Amino acid sequence: MAYAGDWCLIESDPGVFTELIKRFNVRGIQVEEVWSLDAQTLEELKHVFQAWQPVYGLIFLFKWQGNNDSSGAHPDADLSIDDSVVNNACATQAILSILLNCPSIDLGPDLQEFKEFTREFNPYDKGLAMTNSEILRSVHNSFSRSDPFIMDSSESSSSEKEDIFHFISYVPIHGALYELDGLSNGPVNLGPCTDDDWLEKVRPVIQERMARYASAEIRFNLLALIKNREDVYKMRLETDISFEEREELLHKIELENIKFKRYERENSLRKHNFIPFIYNIIRILAERGELDARIEHAKKEMTKRKKERAEKKKNAEASGSKN
């Protein structure tokens, strides 16, 4: 694929994915991390503060293990796809697999145009169109983490093979649950479902996949694309509710705003290279002859803090034993 090597690695983080979707000009969607697959957690994901909330799809991240993993689980898997696509573009591909298959989502002009353009393409050509899309690639690459230790592109390649993590999507489409994997020649139909029960249907599928790697791998991540919670809360505010519920909803809206501001700050810090700033501070202190004194001060402060923590722990243990 022509531009496959130009896709950077991005972090599997709800703040990153939420802002990435926003930069695609898609509104009303956010991404939340799913910490557990138990029934209560999945139910809470669908119902937020007495209101029903659409869960559009799930994105599952796992360590790709070649023929022994997901791609080998289905006969239509195609392992000839370039590794750089698996390694880099699959995060955005997993997001698009959900966005483009949910008619209730307002895609915005860019993704709507891409969807119309690729409507009659086969799965391989759709993937090719995605990896060659300037808009999709530029938005994806805007989340590249700064690596201060890579001086030029030739230094980024290594003879040592790094772990490759792969993203796949699960989404209900026209009454059936589908697994959408960029390594496969096409979607995999996992059976019938409804909008209300598809999360229960997908739970054993993901659990079985995790169990397959349990002896050698514990690094998994599960993210859910959901309707923007602030929008859900505001819709609830327009209904006939009690004063107490109204106050609670306003509080939850405030918490969502705080969370999104945190996302914005974290994403900004991810992209910033602090090494030159730190280097110059150290250099200036050394030139002034102040570096050794600062190091000694820092050592003393660290020793003091360790001692304080040890004393707090000792006092807490003593208080617990008395009780």
UniProtKB/TrEMBL annotation:
Family under the similarity heading:
Belongs to the peptidase C12 family.
Which reactions fall under this protein's catalytic activity?
Answer: Thiol-dependent hydrolysis of ester, thioester, amide, peptide and isopeptide bonds formed by the C-terminal Gly of ubiquitin (a 76-residue protein attached to proteins as an intracellular targeting signal)
Q: What is this protein called?
A: Ubiquitin carboxyl-terminal hydrolase
Superkingdom field: Eukaryota
Q: Give the matching Pfam families.
A: Peptidase_C12, UCH_C
- UniProt KW keywords: Hydrolase, Nucleus, Protease, Thiol protease, Ubl conjugation pathway
**InterPro entries from the UniProt entry:** Papain-like_cys_pep_sf, Peptidase_C12_UCH, Peptidase_C12_UCH_sf, Ubiquitinyl_hydrolase_UCH37, UCH_C
Tell me a GO cellular component: nucleus
Look up the signal peptide feature and give its range.
Answer: none
- Keyword Lipoprotein listed? The answer is no
Query: Any idea of its EC number?
Result: 3.4.19.12
What general EC class does the enzyme of this chain belong to? Answer: hydrolase
Residue stretches making up the UCH catalytic domain: 6-227
| Region Disordered: start-end pairs | 301-323
UniProt site positions, description: Important for enzyme activity: 181
Localization of this protein: Nucleus
